[in-house]
Amino acid sequence: MTTKYDKDIATEIILGFEGRPEMLVQILRAFVTRFSYLKEEAIRQISSELNLSRAEVWGVVQFYHDFRTEPPGKIIVKICQAEACQAMGSRELTSHAEKSLGIAMQSNSSDGKHTLEAVYCLGNCACSPAVMINDRVYGRVDSRRFDALLEKADAK
Amino acid sequence: MSNAETTRVFVPRETAALSMGADEVCDAIQDQADKNKCTIELIRNGSRGMSWLEPLVEIQLGDDRVAYGPVRAEDVAGLFQAGFLQGGKHDLALGETEDIPYLKTQQRWTFRRCGIIDPLSIADYKAHGGFAGMLRALEIGTADTLSEVSASGLRGRGGAGFPTGIKWKTVADASAEQKYITCNADEGDSGTFSDRILMESDPFTLLEGMLIAGFTVGANRGYIYLRSEYPLAHSILSKAISIAREEGWLGENIQGSDFSFDIELHLGAGSYVCGEETAMLESLEGKAGLVRYRPPLPALEGLFGKPTVVNNVVTLGSIPDIIRLGGDAYAEYGLNRSKGTLAFQLAGNIKRGGLVELAFGTTLGELIENWGGGTFSGRPIRAVQIGGPLGAYFPASLLDTPLDYEAFVALDGMLGHGGVVVFDDTVDMAAQARFAMEFCAIESCGKCTPCRIGSVRGVEVIDRIIANDNRDVNLELLDELCMTMIDGSLCAMGSLTPYPVRSAIKYFAEDFVSASGAKQ
């Protein structure tokens, strides 16, 4: 869900964690869930309300893959790139996805519709290759199933 | 509506089953039941671990359950026509669930309730022996509880295999006003999903294991560090924690005793290295997951500098029955210094992928053939990676290796968290070796040089070897680089990445010659 940044909602989220600095990773998670990405404004507000330096907050933001600082597409597609999925053709599936969506891995489509990302293991290794579309995991995804799943997601 | 007419139907709510359409199957069953005017009670159980049969639908018939699978939504109308609510014959019928050979031949200890109970029903959990371990611990006291853990011979199931009893004793003996129990649920290794299955199918087992740990070492606070790639496990664990609180199994004065304990659930943020225990502690403190120097050991100076138990999900999940039945009962399983059971996970190019809990000692080949049924593609097995992305690649000629910690170490490999990823003969082992270095470069925390720089150089050197550029010199250089990473890295990320690389070169040397190079 992409939502416009709102200072009051942001404060509410931080207070939900009692403003504890050791909850920084959890607070950043909640921000990404609520606002879909972390704006400069969010970093400023978090650092001031937790009494941390902006550098400290940025350091944490940049360490973790999940903390995006650019708005993602409406549909976030993650394709597992780890070994169990490689053994079942995830490299071929990835090339197919890049061609079919017209974007490279780790990028957004220019119309803001799709984001294509790597993920290293969804824990669905007995039904690989695995793909996650907006937080839902799918197993045994070949090119045909991929196209069908995307068509369904696009139609929503 | 009388109970006699109500048929209990089980449809798993577990990631693998959902990934193959379990929700759609569930809707289709309700829909068909309404159309056919059948009264059913749909129960969303966890998984039995037979992932290749998911969604596995079960029907309660008297005291037994019969299974159908893998069921697709479009199969459901046919199943009703075949009278599956009465156990009717159908192509997808598998007979009584407990008699399916894959399951029947296992030694279920930690995972014995998975797929059987409703994961979020404390009544169901207790009816199957749940919380009896905690009650016994309260009765026998901390010293005897610790003795049971030591007697069981249980070793850390996260990968390192450190004896749990020794770890707990260290924390128990440390004097501090505050101690912590932390559960490492950052199951990032490819080919592993046993933590996930346990958390999704029997979450109270993990909570009970943490309670017993807290009671034994004198901690009143626990943390679960769960990876963000597991949204369903997050939802189930969150609910399990609230239910346990409501029913007096978490919070002040557990079940009227003097013992108080509560658990906080934290989510990771997509970092593999946070599965390393000290990086995990940093992340729990709200920081970047940079690995810490050791010593001090986390058992003495862990979370917020206090004595801390760091245990994996399966380790903690094995504890309740060790206390309920006694450590000796657990130690009866296993081989040599590998006591008890390990939940192996069959993954990758495998016909019957899933979770296989066995006593240590079976061979790798038996596991892959007898349970796994060979490759999914039907082609010959060429390589097997055991123990996640930091584990060695074994060739088919080593399939007779017994599944035991020491046997794998002797072959420069590791059992790790029990993940077994099978590749057929189409695999390019140079690409796999390159990926091991590439993954390390992506996921390195960056604190130590051998890991941070070594992994990047490793990718470059492997590229030159594949391109046949100064091949012999670069192979020697790669070997030196691997030794530097092994000897000089701060944690397992850097020091184990060379294992898949070196094993790939050792056993699959032919893949490291380019087509143009081979002609020369």
* Helix residue percentage of chain A: 40-55%
Q: Counting H and I runs of at least 4 residues, what is the number of helices of chain B?
A: 21
Q: Please, what is the CATH homologous superfamily of the largest domain in chain A?
A: Glutaredoxin
- CATH architecture descriptor of the largest domain in chain A: 3-Layer(aba) Sandwich
Give the N-to-C terminal Cα separation of chain A.
Answer: 13 Å
Q: Strand order, main sheet of chain B: write it out.
A: 2-1-3-4-5
Query: What's the domain count of chain B?
Result: 4
Radius of gyration of chain A: 17 Å
Let me know the CATH homologous superfamily of the largest domain in chain B.
NADH-ubiquinone oxidoreductase 51kDa subunit
Spans of at least 5 consecutive residues with low confidence of chain A: none
Description:
The complex is a heterodimer of chains A (156) and B (520). Chain A has 2 domains: 7-63, no CATH class; 75-155, Glutaredoxin. Helices cover 46% and strands 13% of the residues of chain A. Chain A has 7 helices and 5 strands; from the N terminus they run ααααβααββββα. Chain A has a 5-stranded mixed sheet with strand order 2-3-1-4-5, covered by helices on one side. Chain A is elongated and about 50 Å long. The two termini of chain A are 13 Å apart. The longest helix of chain B has 21 residues, at 132-152. In chain B, 57% of the residues are buried. Chain B has 4 domains: 3-104, Glutaredoxin; 122-331, NADH-ubiquinone oxidoreductase 51kDa subunit (Rossmann fold); 334-424, Ubiquitin-like (UB roll) (Roll), CATH 3.10.20.600; 429-519, de novo design (two linked rop proteins) (Up-down Bundle), CATH 1.20.1440. In chain B, the strands form 4 sheets. Chain B has a 5-stranded mixed sheet with strand order 2-1-3-4-5, with helices on one face. In chain B, strands 13-12-16-14-15 form a 5-stranded mixed sheet. Helices cover 42% and strands 15% of the residues of chain B. Chain B is of the alpha/beta class and 520 residues long. Chains A and B meet through α2, α4, α5 and β5 of A and α1, β12, β16 and α16 of B.
